[in-house]
Design goal:
26 helices, single chain, alpha/beta, YaeB-like fold
């Protein structure tokens, strides 16, 4: 009996494919579809490599100029697409490659076989991995054929330069050691990722292992193939790291939380989790996927279309939580509307009506309301007097609380009279309406992205929407290091218990290690929570790619800064970078408008990434965005402009009511800069003019 044919595409193949001219890409896609249907067709034109080391590796003809590189395991009916390039370059790439199933890890590995002369031995005292035994190297996935080569590496620069020659899984573990993570910890990490399954014997069996699935995708049909080839660089749609896949597919007995630094794939995990759960729903059951800001909800909705079937999409409601609340109150016959801009004036009026002798401004009362009163639902004088005020810098004794309550009372009356609500009050009232109706779950599951920015009131509402605690009910991803709003949720205080159901993502897939380190250093000395009652150090995250450190440039004038940015953008474009892969980020909307006007004047097509719109990457042009709007996005190159004193941090954003408020708002501004920097994949530029920001170093 003939084995069924299995065709898989490697991550490297998609990387090579993305660099091809558009016309050649069409030919390659057409070839792959024919190849998938019948890899033994006489028209495939298999050719053995004259200088090839591995007899399973062949070239196939795309056209007169281009060749694909494939692995052919006829006895199991498996065919792997490894690379595609101009024929000379394709042959050079394949000449030393070997494809094997690693006996220790069970992963399909593609690696170079170096000659003895090239694996020059270095003194044992200089060897990069001198403290790692051969057995441990093998446990970490290093092929036996590469032991001598790995032993020949003398420094980190040489090691990272050899990335293309080393199997992906082995390179990842070795990079952790290179960055100073203890060997025992890395070995344990590798063992955990590998799982307890038996080692595969054939490539066909090995393709199903977690380690192989992060580098290979088995193509099941023409529709899936078209999706993959349409956007080959969006590998998050296809390849999941074993740690991500484990989280996505896991059965949780209740709420689960996932932490991870910028670029570790939290949103990717959340989207795949939504797809996974949606595929298991029956009848009219639905999933709520929500996030803190409207633009992120729009981006997530667009990206879910790329990984979900039509049926799965129908079962996932993606909406900004504020918009959900507004709609729910309207459907419930509630006449009041959520207000954002008019709330400050309402507080001013409340202070006048209360006429109390306290030295606080409207901002103090608004924050006290959000952080203490409505957060703890202390909606009576008696409850407010007893409420805890941990983390509030200004002390209020009993007498002052009684006086302050008069302001809160006036504020509540004004909200009712004017038929408006602040968002936290609206969330509280929405939850009360749900409870009045019996508190039956409206959704089978709730997925939360950017959980660090939600308030306690938001999480209590989400708890109500998911109903009583049950399996796979709430899934939260977040990172306090990216908290750019001043909410500080405590999940356990909101009846969301994640103890024993928490995970941490540690690998940064977006930025280089140099950008990650610089950005993370901005937050040195600041303590961050884990969205509950613990601490998130964030010190185990690591990038697997390397590049230049962020470029810090100071100028005397705004015109000098602008000239530099334009010149650098033109250099990038001349080196083949598309304008849509470059983003200029500024702190305020006015600065964004000013830069767009200047870029347009200089002949550069530029447009702002708007608050309520997705970024259409098919539109050619330089992106310009505020620091808030760029959250959740990524670009090859990012320029953070006008990082001047009083702009970053923005002087009007710093609350100087007391030392704690000042420290909190300053931290939020640092987090904004951290978020902006970590949007960059390959390179980051920070520019300033006049007096530079106090945040900048180096």
């Amino acid at each position: 009996m003939t084995n069924p044919v299995k065709v898989a595409i490697s991550s490297d193949f998609l990387t090579a494919f993305a660099k091809l001219p558009r016309g050649i890409q069409g030919k390659v896609t057409e070839f792959i579809n024919k190849f998938r249907n019948d890899p033994l067709s006489p028209g495939i034109n298999y050719e053995k490599l004259s200088k090839g080391i591995d007899k399973k590796i062949y070239s196939v003809r795309i056209d007169d100029t281009y060749r694909g590189i494939v692995v052919r395991e006829e006895e199991t009916g498996v065919y792997l697409l490894l690379w595609v390039d101009h024929h000379d370059e394709a042959y050079d790439w394949a000449a030393r490659k070997r494809c094997e199933v690693n006996k220790k890890t069970g992963a399909v590995q593609i690696f170079d076989v170096q000659t003895i002369e090239e694996a020059v031995s270095v003194p044992s005292t200089d060897a990069l991995f001198k403290a790692v035994s051969d057995n441990d190297l093998l446990e970490l996935g290093v092929p036996e054929e590469q032991l001598a080569f790995i032993r020949s590496l003398s420094d980190a620069k040489t090691f990272f330069g050899a990335k293309a020659s080393i199997p992906q899984d082995a390179f990842e573990y070795l990079s952790w050691i290179t960055e100073g993570i203890p060997l025992e910890e890395v070995l344990e990490y590798a063992k955990e990722e590998r799982g307890s399954g038996e080692s595969a014997e054939s490539i066909s069996d090995a393709l199903d292992t977690p380690a192989s699935l992060k580098a290979f995708v088995v193509v099941e049909g023409e529709d899936e193939l078209k999706k993959i080839m349409a956007e080959p660089l969006e590998k998050w749609r296809v390849f999941l790291h074993p740690t991500q896949r484990k989280i996505v597919n896991k059965e949780y007995s209740g709420p689960a939380r996932v932490l991870g630094g910028a670029g570790t794939g939290k949103t990717v995990v959340a989207m795949h989790r939504a797809k996974h759960l949606a595929s298991k729903l029956s009848g009219s059951q639905r999933i709520l996927f929500t996030t803190f800001t409207a633009n992120l909800a729009a981006d997530i909705k667009e990206n879910l279309r790329k990984i979900c079937t039509i049926e799965e999409l129908r079962k996932i409601e993606v909406i900004h939580l504020d918009a959900w609340v507004n709609g729910f109150l309207r459907e419930s016959g509630f006449s009041a509307q959520i207000d954002y801009d008019g709330i400050e004036s309402l507080w001013e009026k409340a202070m006048i009506m209360a006429n109390v002798d306290l030295p606080y401004d409207a901002g103090f009362y608004e924050e006290e309301w959000n952080r203490v009163v409505i957060s703890q639902e202390a909606l009576s004088l008696e409850k407010y007097v007893q409420a805890t005020r941990n983390g509030r810098g200004t002390r209020l004794n009993r007498k002052k609380r009684i006086l302050a309550w008069k302001v809160f009372e006036a504020y509540q009356n004004l909200m009712k009279e004017n038929q408006i609500r602040d968002i936290n009050t609206a969330m509280y009232e929405s939850r009360k309406l749900l409870e009045t109706g019996g508190n039956h779950a409206k959704y089978a599951a709730v997925i939360v992205d950017e959980g660090q920015d939600f308030s306690d009131n938001a999480f209590r509402l989400l708890r109500a929407l998911a109903g009583e605690e049950h399996a796979n009910d709430i899934f939260i991803v977040g990172d306090a290091h990216q908290r750019i709003y001043r909410n500080k949720p405590v999940l356990s205080r909101c009846s969301i218990n994640v103890r024993g159901r928490s995970s941490i993502l540690k690998i940064n897939y977006r930025t280089t290690e140099e950008i990650r380190k610089y950005a993370f250093a901005l937050l040195n000395g600041i303590s961050f929570d884990d969205l509950d009652e613990g601490v998130d150090l964030g010190d185990r995250c690591q990038s697997l790619t390397h590049g230049e450190k962020p470029s810090i440039q100071e100028f005397k004038s705004a015109s000098d800064e602008l000239a530099y940015i334009i010149d650098e953008i033109k250099k990038l474009v001349n080196n083949g970078v598309s304008l849509q892969d470059i983003c200029v980020v500024a702190r305020t909307r006015k600065l964004v408008d000013d830069y767009i006007a200047q870029f347009t004047k200089a002949g550069l097509r530029a447009y702002a990434i708007k608050r309520n719109k997705t970024d259409d990457r098919n539109y050619d042009g330089l992106r310009v965005a505020t620091m808030h709007r760029v959250k959740g996005l990524e670009f090859q190159y990012v320029f953070i402009a006008a990082v001047n004193s009083r702009v970053v941090p923005l002087s009007s954003a710093i609350n100087k009511t007391d030392a704690i408020s000042e420290a909190e708002t300053t931290t939020s501004e640092k987090c904004l800069l951290y978020v902006a920097l970590t949007r960059a994949q390959k390179g980051a530029y920070i520019t300033c003019y006049g007096k530079k920001s106090e945040f900048l170093r180096g």
